[in-house]
Amino acid sequence: MREITPQIALELIAHEGIVTQAYKDSVGVWTWSVGITDASGHKVYPRYKDKPQPLEHCIGVYLWLLREKYLPPVLTAFGSYDPTEAELGAALSFHWNTGAIARASWIKRFVGGDRAGARNAILDWARPASLLARRRLEQALFFEGKWSGDGTALVYGVAKPSYQPSRGRRIAVRTLVEGLFDVPDPVPVPMAVNVARPPRSWFDRLFD
């Protein structure tokens, strides 16, 4: 498995939640959607400050970044090994959260054949202690194939003036995520006079 799937995307959403407008994380970094910051290459602040976005846009940007920015280094870390869907999903969740797949010893041990060592070493990335629960879920997914996502997400508003996430409500997002995977590639339209432009898709709006 070397492609993102809806199940993988939903697993990460289950870990992260969704905040529809920009907020400040625990260390004051402006963040949006499924844990996206300016460091991803997609500008968050001030673009989404006080500007709630529809879930389609929040998830669309997340999928684009997951596919374009996070999948390649994870596949590089696996080398010639072809991961299962569960292994790829767990590794992507780890990299999305830490950005450290290239230097993590656990993936190197796994690729080198030390499965037991890799299983233990993934928990080395459980600092601060609040990350331990997530590392254990990634560990169970990677080594046992146990998915924890149920197709829902906690979707948060933002309290002001603190700009902290608040009032999370659980929303079913499976159909939306699967629908974004099913969007066909645009069909080229021949040049013609007075041809109406097709409606802009969620992908077009990523770069607004």
Structure description:
There is one protein chain. The protein has helices at residues 6-16, 55-78, 85-98, 105-111, 115-121, 132-144, 174-181; strands at 18-24, 30-33, 36-37, 152-159, 164-172. With 208 residues, the chain is α+β, with helices and mostly antiparallel strands. Strands 3-2-1-4-5 form a five-stranded mixed β-sheet. The radius of gyration is 18 Å and the shape is globular. 30% of the residues are buried.
Short overview:
The protein is α+β, with helices and mostly antiparallel strands. The protein has helices at 6-16, 55-78, 85-98, 105-111, 115-121, 132-144, 174-181, and strands at residues 18-24, 30-33, 36-37, 152-159, 164-172.
Q: What is the end-to-end distance?
A: 32 Å
Strand order of the largest sheet: 3-2-1-4-5
The gross shape turns out to be: globular
* Largest beta-sheet characterization: 5 strands, mixed
Cα gyration radius (Å)? 18 Å
Low-confidence stretches: 185-198
Q: Order of helices and strands, N to C? A: HEEEHHHHHEEH
Helical stretch count? Answer: 7
> In percent terms, what proportion of residues is strand?
5-15%
Question: Could you report the average pLDDT, rounded to the nearest whole number?
Answer: 91
In total, how many beta strands? 5
Helix content: 40-55%
Structural class computed from helices and strand pairing: alpha+beta
